[in-house]
Amino acid sequence: MNPKRAAALFLILVSCTSLAALPAQSQVKTGKTITVKIKAPKPQKPKIEKFKGQVIRMNTVSIIVRDERNSYVVRTFTFSQALAKKLKTLIDRGGYQPGDKVTIFYPAGSTVAQSIKGKASKAF
Length: 124
What we know:
Layout: H1 3-20, E1 48-58, E2 62-67, E3 74-79, H2 81-92, E4 101-107, E5 112-113, E6 115-118
């Protein structure tokens, strides 16, 4: 290797290492820190679905309903606490009888009825 090249290479190497060894400059604070308030997401209301069918059986805790379009589909719904209070007088009079047509409103993915609409026939 040529001595001039070795000296030039040595100078380049020394300059690179000296620049790399310089301490980093700190940032200058000019103002107060900014705090960002994060809004809490609102809980989404569950989608309410409905099921139309004929009553097979009803008691004080649940109702069993057959789909009016497909007789092989049978679903059992329990009552929410608010609905149970509303149905108490209806249940005392005999409740829904087999064959009554009802529409049950319930949250998607659940079997807890939130409300029931339909005309109850007279008890036996």
